[in-house]
Structures are given as structure tokens and as C-alpha cells.
Write a structure and sequence with these properties.
The chain has a domain of 108 residues. The chain is built from 14 helices and 22 strands. Strand 20, helix 12 and strand 21 form a beta-alpha-beta unit. InterPro entries: F-box-like_dom_sf, F-box_AtFBL13-like, F-box_dom, F-box_dom-containing, LRR_dom_sf, LRR_FXL15/At3g58940/PEG3-like.
């Protein structure tokens, strides 16, 4: 047998090309557009395969002139890949991420590119700009507001059009909206939410507002309110809200949060002493009056809302641990408790009697998992956890993310201090982990610990 025939016989078959075109297109949709375009040189079969994949464009991986050519019909043939991209200028655009438009002179080009993408089936849009004075911020063009295909929108340092009232059918099919450093008056926000009838997730970060903000949405399921300067947040008419994630304001004003009606609320946190007041229905937790005793004026309807909460997260600051008994007594069906422990002071003495005098809480019949981040063996930590160990009938795991080094001696001392031998649940296990592993355990609240976006805005 000749060498040429032998090489053909031993040549491995092209199994990848043998896959169905639908599957190959799905694979190509997961890689950057320039890499997908390069596959066109593999064979005649691959030449046009990538052109059937909707574009996912990110200006951090595409040169500015190439990105412009994706939306305009200029003649250009500097690179083979870029020429292929130019030929595909009418292809659908599934996702678009832009960050190179920080100066007002670039805004008209931005308007054209965003409007063109909105007409080509755009589903995901991310616009990130450096924080500028309001008069220099990029304003969303009206064609984008009417985009029916858009499902995800993330804005940083942008603002909405001055046109008021907002046009009808704004973002009619939008499911997730993220606003970072966006200035929006309450009236404009209400008009926006009333138009977004499919909205499920609303995320605020460093939100700027001088007056109260009111949120109403029949479709909303998750609300994240992170580092807002608004003095008061009112949540009402949210019949499908399941998750409310809160973080205190960055100003000296203690924000007031009122949840007037959320019958399906299951996840709530972080509750902190920095809130001026937290109202759930007619139940008021007012740290400025007496944090140990919540004012409770609950009708059966409002009690149902408190009973729906299954996951609770609290920040355990100085003088705030005395509030925890009152909090736990207000959520009788609690299953998961996450505690973020602030650094304690050596001069602070916790009132250990609050747990000795506390009768068994109804939530202890349901509480299954407890996680404390920042555990160091302080008296306040130990007294709370010991109470849960001794009284928690349904507990099966307590995870302690330790700020101290974990040694066999440290673990032995803590197990003895927590009275693990007297545990009410025979299935309970005590897990000690390094604090650096916290992201995998406080998973629901990672958005409050992720500083990547803040770093990007500062760079």
C-alpha cells in the first residue's frame, strides 16, 4: 500500500462536521464573533455556517472600526474576518455590550448603532459608561425604548430620555432590568414599571434619588436594592415578589423600607441596624425606638406575608444582636438563616441573658440551615449559635465561615462552647470553613459582595 493511501486510511474522520448544523450553530453562538467568523476557512461546509448564528457583540473584544461596520454599509476590506463581518451586517444581533461612548461627541454614533441593533432582534443589551455629570450622560434613544425583542437591559451611567410622559409600550417584553448609577425620578420610574409588564427582575446599584422611591409591578419576582441614596423605599402592589435583597444606603441618612403587600415573599435580606425602619405589612422593626422589641400590628393577611419568608439574611452589627430574637419570632416558617457578622469590638459585651430567657421559637420547627460569615468565637456569636444548636429541632447543618485560623484546637473549643453534644437534632453537623470560601455558601447574597462593577466604573 502506498504512503498516500496509508495516510488517508489512518486519517481521523471529521466527527465535528458530522454533527447536525443546528448543534454546530449552537456551539458557534457561544464563542466571540471573530472566532466564529474564522471557522469559515475550514471547509465549504463551514463557509456560511457561522452566518446563521445571531451575533453576540462586545466592544471589548472587537475594534471600534469593526463594530461600526457591523451597523453601517461602508466599503472596507482591511482584514478577511472583518470583511466577513461586514457582509453580515443584516444578521440578527442577539446580544450587544458597549462601553466606549463616554464623551458626548460619540453619542450620535451610539444612537445609530443601538437603534440598528434594536431593529435586528436584539435580546440583551449592556451599556456601561464612566460616571459623568447629568448633562453629559448618554440618553437612551426612543427606538430602543420600543424594542419588542429586548429581554435583558443593564445600564451604567446612562439616563432615560427627557421625553415625558414615556411613550406607550416601553420595553414590552423586558424581563430583567439593571440600573447602576442611573438618575431617575419616582414618576419616571413608575411610568417605566407600568410599561414593563413582563419584568421579573429589577436591580438597583448606587441608585441616585433625593426623594422616596415607590415600586409597583404585577410581574416583578426579584428586587435588589443596593447602595441607594433614596431616603425611603416603598414596595406595594407586588403580588408575585419572591425575593427582596436590600443593602443599606451610602449616606448618613438611615433609609426606611416599607413592604406593604408581598404575599409570596420567600427571600429577605440583609436586615441591618443601619435601616431607620423596616416595615413588613403592619409589622415594624424600628431600630431607632427599641431594636429588641418590634412593634407588631399584624392582620391575618400580613401575617401570611411574614409566614411565607423561607430565607432570611441579617447583618449582625454592634448592639444589633439583641434584635435577632424579635426578628426570628416574626418569621415562623423560616428554613434558611444567613448571618453576616460585622467586626466586633473588644469593649462590647453582649447580653447573654437574652437567649437564656427566650422560650423556643416557632421557626425552630422548620429551620434547616444556618450560615455565619465572619465567625470568630465572640460571645455574641456563641450565645446565638448555642441557642440554635440546643433548640433547633430540624437543623441539619450550621456552616461557620471563620475569620480566625482554623485549627483542631479551635474547632474543639467551639464545639464545646456551642454544646454540640446537647443538640436537639441528631442529624446536625457543624462545618468550619475559611472565610475565603464564603462565596459558595452565601450564594444568594453574592451580589452585595461583588465589587467588580465598582472597580470597572472607577478605572
Amino acid at each position: 500500500m502506498s504512503s498516500s493511501k496509508r495516510s488517508k486510511a489512518t486519517e481521523a474522520p471529521d466527527l465535528l462536521s458530522a454533527l447536525p448544523d443546528e448543534l454546530l450553530s449552537s456551539i458557534l453562538s457561544l464563542v466571540p464573533v471573530k472566532d466564529a467568523a474564522r471557522t469559515s476557512v475550514l471547509s465549504s461546509h463551514w463557509r456560511h455556517l457561522w452566518t446563521e448564528v445571531p451575533l453576540r457583540l462586545d466592544d471589548t473584544s472587537i475594534e471600534p472600526d469593526e463594530l461600526t461596520l457591523l451597523f453601517n454599509k461602508f466599503e472596507w476590506s482591511r482584514k478577511a474576518v472583518s470583511t466577513i463581518i461586514l457582509d453580515s451586517r443584516q444578521r440578527p444581533i442577539e446580544a450587544l455590550s458597549l462601553s466606549r461612548f463616554n464623551r458626548p461627541p460619540l453619542h450620535p454614533t451610539m444612537d445609530r448603532n443601538v437603534a440598528s441593533a434594536a431593529q435586528r432582534g436584539l435580546r440583551e443589551l449592556t451599556l456601561i459608561s464612566e460616571i459623568q455629570p447629568c448633562e453629559n450622560r448618554y440618553r437612551l434613544p426612543l427606538p430602543l425604548l420600543r424594542c419588542k425583542s429586548l429581554h435583558y437591559l443593564s445600564l451604567c451611567g446612562c439616563q432615560f430620555s427627557r421625553v415625558m410622559p414615556m411613550p406607550p409600550s416601553v420595553f414590552p417584553n423586558l424581563k430583567e432590568l439593571r440600573l447602576t448609577a442611573v438618575t431617575l425620578h419616582n414618576d419616571s420610574l413608575q411610568a417605566l414599571l407600568s410599561s414593563c409588564r413582563s419584568l421579573q427582575t429589577l436591580h438597583f446599584t448606587t441608585f441616585q434619588a433625593r426623594h422616596l422611591i415607590s415600586i409597583s409591578s404585577p410581574s416583578l419576582r426579584k428586587l435588589v436594592w443596593n447602595h441607594s441614596t433614596a431616603p425611603e423605599l416603598i414596595i406595594k402592589d407586588v403580588p408575585n415578589l419572591e425575593s427582596l435583597m436590600l443593602d443599606e444606603g451610602t449616606t448618613s441618612v438611615c433609609p426606611v423600607v416599607k413592604v406593604l403587600d408581598a404575599p409570596k415573599l420567600q427571600q429577605l435580606g440583609f436586615i441591618s441596624a443601619y435601616f431607620g425602619a423596616l416595615q413588613l405589612g403592619r409589622t415594624v422593626f424600628d431600630s431607632q425606638i427599641d431594636p429588641r422589641i418590634p412593634k407588631i400590628e399584624a392582620s391575618p393577611c400580613q401575617l401570611k406575608m411574614l409566614s411565607s419568608v423561607k430565607t432570611l439574611a441579617i447583618k449582625m452589627e454592634l448592639d444589633f444582636d439583641d434584635t435577632i430574637p424579635g426578628l426570628l419570632s416574626s418569621f415562623p416558617c423560616l428554613e434558611t438563616l444567613d448571618i453576616l457578622k460585622e467586626e466586633s469590638s473588644d469593649e462590647y459585651d453582649s447580653d447573654s441573658d437574652i437567649w437564656d430567657e427566650k422560650s423556643s421559637l416557632s421557626c425552630l420547627d422548620h429551620l434547616k440551615t444556618v450560615t455565619m460569615k465572619g465567625f470568630s468565637g465572640d460571645q455574641s456569636d456563641v450565645e446565638l449559635l448555642k441557642y440554635l444548636v440546643v433548640c433547633g429541632k430540624a437543623l441539619w447543618r450550621i456552616t461557620l465561615l471563620c475569620s480566625e485560623s482554623i485549627t483542631e484546637k479551635f474547632v474543639e473549643i467551639q464545639r464545646r462552647e456551642l454544646c454540640i453534644e446537647k443538640r436537639a437534632s441528631s442529624d446536625l453537623e457543624l462545618v468550619f470553613l475559611s472565610d475565603t470560601e464564603s462565596n459558595s455558601h452565601l450564594w444568594a447574597w453574592n451580589e452585595f459582595h461583588d465589587s467588580s462593577l465598582d472597580s470597572m466604573m472607577e478605572s
